[in-house]
Structure formats: structure tokens, C-alpha cells
Records
---
Amino acid sequence: MTKSAAATARVRIAAEQAATVHRIESLTARLADILDGSELTTNDDEHDPEGSTIAFERAQVTSLIGDARQELEDLEAALRRVGDGSYGVCEKCGRAINPERLDALPAARRCIDCA
């Protein structure tokens, strides 16, 4: 990987990290709103028609936060691969990952064929 390509990859990954951090912050605020709102309702989800909706929303947002945190870890790993020169190389077959794939998924570890 050339220095120019590595610099471009770092910029792309940093932009994706910033977007992911923003998404985590937004989802965390949404979860806090859900939890604050649920304090005003009963704890009897079984008989409360809104209870299952609140529980579903809470579970959904919690899952989305977990996904975003995993994405952040994947982006950190991608930065390490840029540093060691293995970024853009499929970890399964060893061929180059298509640049368009890396544009869409900067943390991609496999080429489209191996994915």
C-alpha cells in the first residue's frame, strides 16, 4: 500500500469513526429518553398495552448501540491493518479488496467473493 493510499484510507476510516461515534451518542440519548419515559408508566408490561412497545423500543435501541460499538471496534482494527500494511487485502484469499467495496465498507476484511 502506498503512502498516499494509506493516508486516504486513514481519512476514510476516521470519517466513518466520527459518524459512528455520532450515531452512538444519538442512540444513547434516545435510550435515555425511552428510559426516562418509561419511569412514568407502570412496570406491568404484560397488562399495559404500551409496555411491550416500550420494551421493544428499548431492546431495539440497545441492539443498535451494540452494533455501532462493534463497528467502531472494526474500524479500529482497520486502522491497525493500515498501519501494518494489510489493509485492503482479503484475510481469506489474500487478493486485493475492490476499492469500491472499501469506500462503502471501510472496515471490510474480505473481498466480495469471500464475504
Note: Residues 3-87 form one domain.
---
Amino acid sequence: MLAGALDEARDVMGVLREIWPKCSRKTRVAVVSYSKLRRGSTKRHHKSNSENELNWLPRTEVANVLELAGFEVIKQTPEVLMTNNLGPISRWVNRWLTRLPLFRQFAVAIVTLARKIDQPHPDPSLSIIVPTRNEAGNIKRILSEIPSMSPNQELIFVEGNSTDDTWQVLQQQTSALPPGYPSKVQVHKQTGVGKGDAVRLGFAKSTGEMLMILDADLTVPPSELPLFYDALVQQRTEFANGSRLVYPQEKEAMRFLNYVANKLFGLWFSFIMGQPVRDTLCGTKVLWRDDYELIAANRAYFGELDPFGDFDLLFGAARLNLKIRDIPVHYKERTYGSTNISRFRHGLLLLRMSLRGARKLVFAPTQSEPKPR
């Protein structure tokens, strides 16, 4: 944490360049800067204790010098609205109001969180997890359309108690794969319930350095998966989240109410996590194994409300301060089967989970540090 260090440094760039080689991919640099409202009192206090003038680094300049020194900004968060100690009143104001729109403009301090811009990660091994329930008609297409992205790639199906012949089709199709098929293939039968449980089982059975989720309904074409792989390999992001809200959609791909709900959840989640996430419910998500293991180790912090797994991963990534970025995908109409999602019942559950995430990530009075693996 650089709290005031850049304000007093005679060589701001020198300080940051000295820090850069000591950072790893997981290191987060936090810089505290003050608003114009706070600047005057800070400067007067500093003059009374030192002969040196303070530097002036507003939030935009902090982001600028970090970028020049080889860092990139993950997010900037307002902190502290009321500096006078009025007991419960100031605690309530600083806990609940500081992060809200309008009020955040008057925060006296801004915390800028940044990470080191690192070199590309060459050819990491990859595990593609495909949770599969009542998708018998899509299995052959998945096997034929999965692109080869890594020289060490595995494809893991987790069959979730289907009422059609998905399990039998998986057995038949995977046993008939030709020699030289570019992915090692595993097939597992789910013992729990829900997509989130299936994804966790697939992750537990996987060996890849990078973990990728593909929904078996093929509404996101497998041909677009290399966009996610390349984004992590090139260190452009640490958590790649699919966004179905960029390109025009096929007529029956997403119903109108689902589209509106996704837009609203995107705005709400961008506020909660402090990073832009437009489409929280797209099933295609990609992250590094070591980051997932940290998320799993700290899962109890948010509880076990999420049967889908999307919020579990997003909340966990936000708490670890991973860089989260959307990857635009083309959203296609389902050609086989029907959705397993209940709009209203699951919508209420998603709302409950998002409120819990807001309380834990935004409004928590103190946030304990995530446990290491």
C-alpha cells in the first residue's frame, strides 16, 4: 500500500519502477490519493510537519504514472466520506454512503488498485469443462467443433442426471473418437445437483493450468473459445467473462425479459465489483487454476447460495482483486432441447445472491483477507 508515498516522493516514476521488478502476477499495488476537497487540509497538515511541498496526483494522474511504470489499473474505489469522528453517524456514512453514486464524488480518498503488466504465458495447458444435462443432440457437435488451442488440452464432460439419453450418447461418441483427436476426453457423472456443482466436479477432475467453461447448449459457438484463451495467455485479463450483449442476437436466442434482466444485473454487478461486467450470466468463463483454487478456499465467505456457479466465480474473483474483463461473443439460438433455467424462480435467487455480494464486497465494515491455499 502506497499511502501518501507518491505525494511525498521527489521521483514518482522512480518509486514505481523500483517496485515493478519485485512484483509477481499476483501482486497488487494500492495507491491512496486525495480528492480536491481533501487536498487543502492535507497540504496544510503536511506543511506544519515538513518543509517540503506535496505532489498533486489526482486519480487520473495516478493511473497515468502507473501505466508509464509498467502497471495497469484494475479499479479505483472511493473511500471515506466523513472525516470527523461523530461515532455511529460517521461510521454509518462511511460504510453505506461512500460507494453510492453521487456520494462517491465527494469521497476524500481514492484507492487505486493496479497489477504488473507481465510477459505472455506461453502455451499453458487447458481444461475445458462442459456441464451437460439433457443435451444428447449436441454432443457430436461439441466434439467436432472444439478448436485446438493448447498442445496439452483436455475436454471434460460432466453429465448432470439427464432425463434423455445424454449419458449413453456421451459414452458412444467419446469411445468412437479417431486417433489423434486434439483433446484428451473425460466423461463423469454428476453426483450433486446444479450446474455449479457440475463445474466444480469438472474442475476437481481437471489437470490444466487454465480452466474454461463451455455450456453444452452451444448458444456460444466453440469457435470463439480461442478469444478467451488468448486473452489470458497474453495477460490482458485474469478472468475472462463472456458477454452476449455486444453483437446482434438471433431471434430466439434470448427472450426479452431475460435480456432486460441481464442488462440490469450487469449494471448492478459493475457497481458491486468495481469493474465493468455487462453480462454476468453468460456461461462461458475462463480463469487460471491457481486463482480458482484461492476462490474455492474462500468460498465460505459468500456462502453456498449459487447453484449456477457464475456468481461464485465472479464474487470470488472480485474479492481476490483479479482483473475481470468481458469477451464479446455471438449468442446463437438453441437448436436442441430447452433451457434448464426458470426465469422467475431463479431470478429471485440471483437477486438474493447479488444482495449478499453487495453486502460482502461493497458495504462490509471490514473485509478479512482471503485465506491462502
Note: The longest helix spans residues 343-361.
---
Amino acid sequence: MSRVREQTSGRAPHIHSRSALVALLWFACGIAHADGAIDAWARWAVTPKVWKGQTVRAPDPEPRPEARSVRVDAVGLPLHVHMPVPATDLHRAAVRALHQLRALEAAFSTWHELGWPGVPFDGGQGGDIGFDLYVVPHERCADACSGSDGLDPLRDFDAAQTYALLAADLPDSSVDACTLRAVAQAALRAQDPAEAESWVRASAELLTWQYDPAACDSQQADHAQGSPELGLLNADPASANAGVLWLAVESERLGHEPAAFVRSLWESTRQRSKDLVPPDRLRGSPDLWEVLRQMLLAQHRQLDDELIEFGVARYFTGPDARRAQASYRSLAALPDTASVPLARELRSGQLPSHIRDTPALRELGSAYVRVQLAEPHPPEQLKLWLHGELGPRWSLTAVRLDAAGREAGRVSTPARSLPSSYLPVALSAETRTVLVVVTLLPRLPTDVPDADVRNDTRHGFELIVAAE
């Protein structure tokens, strides 16, 4: 009886308020009712709304590992580690299982300390409703991964039921950081299943990096810097490697801790797709790129300028001479192997030079050409001509470097969709080297990259460098 009374008392005010609203509109629009205005408004009010923006496919359930395993449970926390049953060395397996459980507990605590909502529970998929981490062969997961059971049917806002995966062959020294990375990936995919995988991986990696700076995977940094032409945070999950560096630099430029910066982005993307789009689709907008662009506009910054700055900044990495001049802590902390390659190394005595055989750039990708000035009579000016393919917008930037490799000034052409640009570069007395950076930008100034659609956005360009 008490339940019935609570439900009745909870509905009554709603019924009264709706009745009052209808009566008020009837009274205020008496003449309009004759024209059918009230009927039209009523039909609009009760008709389900339809989302007209971009949609993405809802996550398909990914089968959980089926190999024979032993479940190890945390005491007092809804956390479970599923370890494969070893054929030999049971003592080492038990020690590793205990280490893995402690790492999962630490990741759970760190995730809450960073201000995020709780890790997702799965409705009993792993044996009960707790959060599950599976230790699996390298073929299933190279280091830290996550999986999805599909959408969470009990949530009003879009959400998914997820779990974490960890490679069985990880060295003991990597278990803690990789466990946090796997938990973060699973929690982010659960919070907003419409976001692109590259954003999930990059955000989780950045959070792990802040928690433990030594956890930066040098191999991932090498991949990110070794292929700057591939762009960042697009539909290719591998673009997450460069995306981590981009987000780290942006958090520094905006004056935020990386965890707080990334959390502020993700908190603004949650949305409701139920009854607005087909059941197998999710609303794809606003996504993280759109939120980031609006965040920059609120601080009177342009996304183009930030991307061009990153294209230049990532040059100052790798060898000591370059890394010593880095403007951002996150880039200065990269290993000495993480440097962007030069598409061409020139000397002013070799000019003019017509450069054709550079890698095609994907959206937000960059290419680098370095010109060493001859001594003792360097030229007074360089002239640069860029000719790119039609479609995107092109940015051409020249950075003057002194004898120590420090930036002594830079000049850029405005980002433009016309395929040709000309840039004269006056050389000051302290200039010893000129770094030329070509960056591919979105097609329109109002566009943001679309990480949900796998398009071939590669475009070629030619560069002419002359001196006088």
C-alpha cells in the first residue's frame, strides 16, 4: 500500500501541472484553437523527436575470454581478476595473481581519486555484477585493452557494459601502469560508447601518464613521432599514439592538469539516444573534437592555431639538441628515440630545390624540411612555394633557429583551401637553420576532424625552396 501511495503522490503533481498548462493555453489561445493551432502544438508535443545529426553504430558485444581460468576476488571491493590456469609453476602463478589483484585495486582507487565516476559493473557477465579484468594471450591483447558486452539496458543516458583485458606476457614492472590503462579504457567506453576508439585509447594513456610519468610506453611514443604524416585522433586506432602527445600539449597550453583537462572533455559529451535514433545506432554529436573546439573558442583560441603550434612543437623532441629547446614538459619528457623524421635535409648552397617525393599527409598530419644555411655568407632570404592537392586546407610555416637550435622567430601563410602558397622568409643574423613545416588542416575553418568515419584523407604536395 505504501508503494502505491508513493507512486500516486508522485504522479499527481505532474498530472495537475499538465492540466493547468493545457487549460492556460486553451484560455490564452481561444481564437487560435479555431485555426487548429492548439491541435498542432499537441501533436508536436506528444510525437517522439527524431535526431537529425550524425549517428554511429552502437557497440557490438565482444565475446569474453573462454579459456580455462581461475577467478581471484578482491576483499571488500567488487573487483575480479580472471587468470589462466598454468600448466606448471603454480607458485609463480599465485604470486602473479596476487600482484595483478593489487594492481586492479590500485587502479580502481586511482580512477576515483582522479574524479571520475565509478568503474562499470556488468550485470553478471563475469560471474556476478562486479568489474572483471581478464589476463589473456598476447594475440588477444598486446598490452592493455578493453571489451564491451554491448549497451547497458538499465541506463537512460548512453552507456555500455565493459570489461578490461591485459596481456599475460607483460613484465612485472608494467603491470600496474597497464592495469590502470585497461581500467580507464573500459570505464571510458562504458561512459560514452559513441566515442571513437582512438579517443578512448589516447585519453586512457594520458591519464596513466599523469599517474606515473615513467609509464610512458617508449614504443608508442616512437610510433607517434616516427609517422607524423598519419595525423592524430582519427578513425585509425593507431592515431591515438600521436593523440596522447596532442592532448598533453593542449592541457599545458590551457593551464590544466592532464586528468582534469581530459575529464572536462568527456563530461560534456554524454547524451541520450533512446527513442531518438534506431536501436542499433547512437547519437554521434557532440563528440570530443566538437567539445574541444568549443572549449578553445571560449578562451579565444582557434583550433587551427593549436594544431599548427603542435605541428611545430613536436619537432623539438628526440635528440638532446632538439629536446633541450622543447617548449612543453610533456614533449621534453619523451625518450631520445621519439623524434619526427625529416622529409628532406637541405643546404642553402643546394638551392633551389624542388621536393616531390614526400609522404602523403592525412588530416592533421605534418611533414618537415630543414635547411642549413651556408657559412660564412648565408643567404638573406628564403623563398618557399607550396603546391598541394585540392580539397583540404594547407598550412606552411617557417621557423628560424639559431646556432643552439632555439627558435628565433617564425612566419606562416594563412591556412587556405587554395592549393598554392608563397612564403618569403627574411633571415636574421642569428639564423643558422630554417625548419619548414607543412600541415594538413580540415577542409573548412568551421570543420573538426571526424574520428568516427574511416576516410582516406591522404593528400600529396610539392615544395620549392629557393634562396637569394
Note: The chain is about 35% helix and 20% strand.
---
Amino acid sequence: MSSVAKVTEITSSSPKSFDDAVHEGLARASKTLQNIKGAWVQGMKVECDNGRITSYRVHLKVTFVLKD
């Protein structure tokens, strides 16, 4: 049996860590996307204020399988 997958790009952030930003992004994506099979972290960035990190941001490519 064959399948077709689609990739969508999302950006998510967290004040805690990059790991938490990935978890937050996938949790939010799973509210509207079904059959998520994986994600590629395409980029990472931090926001700073006076030399202190205030936010961790990730750019994700989320892969999900389309159903018949």
C-alpha cells in the first residue's frame, strides 16, 4: 500500500528551551494536523534582552501522511 505525505512549516517559541519550543510546536500542530510522522528542526534562534535569553525559537518542517 502506498501513501502520500505533506510537509508544512511552522515556527514556535518557548521561554524555557529549544526542546520545549519543539514540543509546543508539535502539540499545537497536532490540534489541526492528523497523522504527524516527524519533524525536522530547520533552524533555531534565541531572542535576547540585555544579553539574557528571553525566548527560544525553532523553525520546524512537520511531515504528516494524507489519508485516502
Note: The chain has one helix and three strands.
